[in-house]
Amino acid sequence: xxxxxxxxxxFGTFLLFALSLNAQVKSTVDSTSVKIGxxxxxxxxxxxxxxxxxxxxxxxxxxxxxxxxxxxxxxLKNKDKFNLIKKYGLTQFDSGKYNIPRQKIIIxxxxxxxxxxxxxxxxxxxxxxxxxxxxxxxxxxxxSGSNWWKPVLIGLLVIALIGFLLYWFIWRQKPLTEDEKIxxxxxxxxxxxxxxxxxxxxYLEHENLKDYYSDLTFIIRKYLxxxxxxxxxxxxxxxxxxxxxxxxxxxxxxxxxDDIKKLESILKRADLxxxxxxxxxxxxxxxxxxxIDVEIDHVKEALPEPSEEEKLLDEQYREEQERKKQRKKIWxxxxxxxxxxxxxxxxxSLKYGFSYVKDTIMGHDSKxxxxxxxxxxxxxxxxxxxxxxxxxxxxxxxxxxxAAQQMKLTQFSYGSLIDGFQLVVATTTLNSPGQEQQQTQGxxxxxxxxxxxxxxxxxxxxxxxxxxxxxxxEEFVTPxxxxxxxxxxxxxxxxxxxxxxxxxxxxMLGFASESVVQQIMIFHKEQDVYAEQMxxxxxxxxxxxxxxx
Length: 549
Known about the structure:
Blueprint: H1 3-11, E1 17-18, E2 24-29, E3 33-35, E4 40-49, E5 54-55, E6 66-70, E7 74-78, E8 81-91, E9 96-100, E10 104-107, E11 110-113, E12 117-122, H2 149-171, H3 178-183, H4 187-200, H5 209-227, H6 237-249, H7 257-275, H8 282-302, H9 308-352, H10 354-362, H11 365-371, E13 375-379, E14 384-388, E15 393-394, H12 401-406, E16 407-416, E17 421-430, H13 435-440, E18 447-448, H14 450-457, H15 459-463, E19 467-477, E20 483-494, E21 501-513, E22 516-525, H16 529-541, E23 543-544
Helix pairs in contact: 2-9, 4-5, 4-8, 5-7, 5-8, 6-7, 7-8, 9-10, 11-16
């Protein structure tokens, strides 16, 4: 079936007309001229059979007048007929001439319209003898607009704060501490500085020889560890002296035998102090300190000058250490950044839901439509006022000549069934050939069975390949009081290019007034929560204006 024929099925075919009922409807007002705020009592009188169900207007259907009271129905029996009288209290707070619009009365399965009534609202005379108050000053009103920049600004501030913290604690060149400055000194200078620090201690004053000899032997062992034997710190005294003798025998260190014996003597005396609680004389401890100072100088002199290759290796070692430090900073920065991102994502997901946060970050077509700037506009004649995420485009199909003589169709839409979201607003005006003759004979104008019209519209989904169409219907009233029918449900729509189906939802609104049919159709995927919110917002915005008589 062609697309044009589908459109005809959706908006024109199978519209049935009802015959007039043997019933009479009259409407009157108690006064056609009142003051501002005064009540006008509007009467609707219906004479009908006892078996017919009569539905009177409800809600704000009397605009531009305001409904302030709806009274109970009075019933009078006249032979085999019933006279039903319904009263409404109306008012208006602006002066001028107003037309009470025609009201729709449903009797059985047929519809009748009352005549419109013109009323005049007069101003109330002002007592000029009383003092008048000054005008109130103009109050500034905050403009309502898009605040998209606020979350962007907050996000930029958070990123800037995180960046500053990472720079301050990780990448910033911090001032060196005293220990760091000492660590940068050559081993010889560090050893000499450590001896000066030992001199400034109060170990000998308090006869704390154990700590004194521990620090003294650590200084010489540390220096030997860095310049002579890289296991000098963890070696025993005998192991260290034995290794020094081997280095001397191999001409790797030009230390004299006397220097080695002096070192051995001091190290063994320190072992006795630390482990055997020996207590040498204070003057001997001072002499050992001077001996260590001299031996450090002798070790430095005994060491051969480093070759160019060794200097190059030392330079490469320093560069490698610097690269390791930089890599550590990079990994630390990446780790902290990933942790903060995951923590932020988790927190937002717990508060707003995982799907919402994911769709906000990754993007979602329906969410972008929902959060975008909506447009409120009117479509068709008589106009349908509706708020939509995008402006609807005119997509009125070209009707065959025979159909064009019977109806006039205007159609506006956005999206498509293939896209997973479609919105269509259509108005069909029927050209009834016998309409003038029916009015001349005093019969009611032909009425459209909107339920059958909407049922015929479902054939568009069938023609598109939909299966398992589930249909529900209920009454629908727009915010401005226009009454219609709402048809909604689910269906299985084919996925283009495959043999698979996916679940979809649809909502159709239908409004009929004499020879005019106004329809709104919305389709979306069932799992699309943002489309559900759009549908609710669209339906709450629908307003209809009755065709002028």
